Amino acid sequence: MAATLPKRITKEIERLVKDPVPGIVAQPHEDNLRHFNVQMAGPTQSPFEGGEFRLELFLPEGYPMEPPMVRFLTRIYHPNIDKLGRICLDILKDKWSPALQIRTVLLSIQALLSAPNPDDPLDNGVAQHWKDNEKDAIATATAWTKQYAQPAPQ
């Protein structure tokens, strides 16, 4: 499998292993190096702090000309992430550039957790809650983090 992998992807995987992104672990599947299991720590001073979120990332055949496909597997209360875990983030859609890398995408998702944008929602109900009563929406996000995103016991 590795022989058919483009050099760019191989280099990105090597860099992720050698120089991991703080708070993020991205491991390619052994049987498909285009498919990654991702663990992302909730950013400090956010409603997601203390949570450990599971995501999946897939590099399509057209990568790096096409963006990776990423979604949350852990439930999360966020205006830019829907119930299926899909993420509303411009660099995963129309603002994608081949200059971006897997680590850039993961850092951008982590930044989105720190700064939800209810004006560009994927989940309209959560966005409206965020706009109408931000304090209560943050409390709900914190409760969901405690309920769904607890790290596995060591």
From TrEMBL:
Sorted UniProt keywords: ATP-binding, Nucleotide-binding, Transferase, Ubl conjugation pathway
Enzyme superclass (EC): transferase
The keyword Chaperone belongs to this UniProt entry's keyword annotation: no
Enzyme Commission no: 2.3.2.23
InterPro entries: UBC, UBQ-conjugating_AS, UBQ-conjugating_enzyme/RWD
Entry-linked SMART domains: UBCc (SM00212)
Domain of life assignment: Eukaryota
PROSITE patterns: UBC_1 (PS00183), UBC_2 (PS50127)
UniProt GO MF annotations: ATP binding; ubiquitin conjugating enzyme activity
UniProt keyword annotation of Transcription present: no
Domain UBC core: 4-150
Catalytic-site annotation from UniProt: 88 (glycyl thioester intermediate)
Any matching Pfam family: UQ_con
Family: Belongs to the ubiquitin-conjugating enzyme family.
Protein name as it appears in the record: E2 ubiquitin-conjugating enzyme
Organism per entry: Dimargaris cristalligena
